[in-house]
Design brief:
Layout: E1 5-7, E2 10-12, E3 16-18, H1 27-35, E4 40-47, H2 48-60, H3 65-68, H4 70-73, H5 86-99, E5 104-109, H6 119-126, E6 130-134, H7 146-163, E7 168-172, H8 179-188, E8 193-196, E9 204-206, E10 211-213, H9 224-234, E11 241-245, H10 251-260, E12 264-267, H11 269-274, H12 278-292, H13 318-327, H14 333-336
The structure holds flavin mononucleotide (FMN).
Residues 19-22, 44-45, 107, 109, 134, 171, 199, 216, 218-219, 245-248, 267-270, 272 line the site of flavin mononucleotide.
């Protein structure tokens, strides 16, 4: 079965990519993932806050960045709490590149324009094959408009993409008013790909302690639906690569993402739950489904159910939303009996 795919201009043996996560903190685990069939790996993110605090610390010749900027960073982890500091991160890219034959993608995570974006060049020098730029932000100020936020994001994408020769993918949030238009703008700003979507950390409230409860829940497959819709809508309208991230838990989920228009499919939660070897179960299941249904390569699948090719495009748009709401009936007590 030919599962090869082109993602960000990189030739992958198959579309299954390990999404940004702690998996690549260990070179041994990264090797297990490669053995299980990973097409590429994305490292955990290096955060703007880590880089900026190191830059400030160096400027002030102090020993501990966390101590010197305690008031500014008190809600952030201490410097030592980050798993990989900026220098360690670069060494880890080098180590992964020595150990693996599949592409290694470094992840830079930030929200404001600043010196941290210089790390894109350092990722490239350390040997990264591509950069995933995660522009995660939560705009809580009512005086900051969506267009201002998006303009800054595009400027960051432009700066990072212009500073390196390796491809840059941008991991987007689903909460843009017009995700398709923004994906096109990101492409225009120089990115080679878009990852749909960032999964937001959503705190809960503790009613006993009246506190905010930070928590990270692993995904389930219901989260895939949002990705499928936007892959299907965006894929006919951009030339850049698209990756699905969120809610892929089995071979069927991965195939759906490809039918909707993805070039690559990222997985994290399912492998945290079942271990790295489960990737080979997903890949085997994909190949089996394809041969049972008469497909021999992903080129015959990619985008076949996107907005341009789908037999019923309205299913992705407003018409079907109205139809479904209108046809839903509440069972009467008589019907229930
Ligand atoms: C433990 C954990 C750590 C993660 N760390 C990062 C990260 O450093 N950077 C990032 O962009 N995404 C990170 N993510 C998000 C994943 O890359 C992915 O987008 C998300 O988990 C959805 O995919 P999934 O449904 O396959 O888990 C993390 C997710 C988990 C569960």
């Amino acid at each position: 079965m030919n599962l090869t795919t082109d993602y960000l201009g990189l030739k992958l043996e198959n579309p299954m990519v390990i999404g940004a996560s702690p998996f690549c903190d260990s070179i041994e685990t990264a090797c297990q993932l490669q053995d299980a069939g990973a097409g590429a790996v994305v490292m955990r993110s290096l955060f703007e806050e880590q880089i900026e605090s190191e830059i400030r610390a160096l400027a002030h010749h102090v020993e501990s960045p966390a101590e010197s900027f305690a008031e500014a960073t008190s809600y952030f982890p201490n410097f030592s709490e980050y798993q990989l500091g900026p220098d360690q991160y670069l060494r880890q890219i080098e180590g992964l590149k020595r150990a693996l034959s599949i592409p290694v993608i470094g992840s830079l995570n930030g929200a404001r324009l600043g010196g941290w974006t210089d790390y894109a060049r350092r990722f490239e020098s350390a040997g990264a094959d591509a950069i995933e730029l995660n522009l995660y932000q939560l705009v809580s100020r009512a005086d900051v408009s969506a267009s201002e936020v998006e303009a800054d994001m595009l400027e960051i994408v432009h700066q990072v993409s212009a500073s390196v020769r390796i491809p840059v993918a941008v991991k987007l949030s689903p909460f843009h008013t017009s995700p398709a238009s923004f994906a096109k703008a990101i492409e225009k700003a120089g990115a080679s790909g878009v990852v749909l979507f960032n999964r937001f950390y959503q705190p809960d409230l503790d009613l006993d302690e009246l506190e905010v409860l930070p928590q990270l829940r692993l995904s389930d497959t219901s989260e895939l639906l949002l990705r499928l819709r936007w892959l299907a809508i965006i894929s006919p309208q951009v030339r850049c690569s698209l990756a699905a991230s969120g809610g892929v838990h089995g071979p069927g989920d991965a195939l759906k993402a490809l039918f909707a228009g993805a070039h690559a499919v990222q997985v994290v939660s399912v492998l945290l739950q079942n271990g790295p070897r489960f990737l080979s179960v997903i890949l085997d299941g994909m190949s089996r489904w394809m041969s049972e249904h008469g497909y021999s390569s992903l080129d015959q699948i990619r985008g076949c159910l996107n907005l341009r090719h789908c037999p019923d495009p309205s299913a992705f748009e407003r018409a079907n939303y109205i139809r479904i709401l209108q046809t839903w009936k509440v069972a009467t007590p008589h019907e229930k009996a």
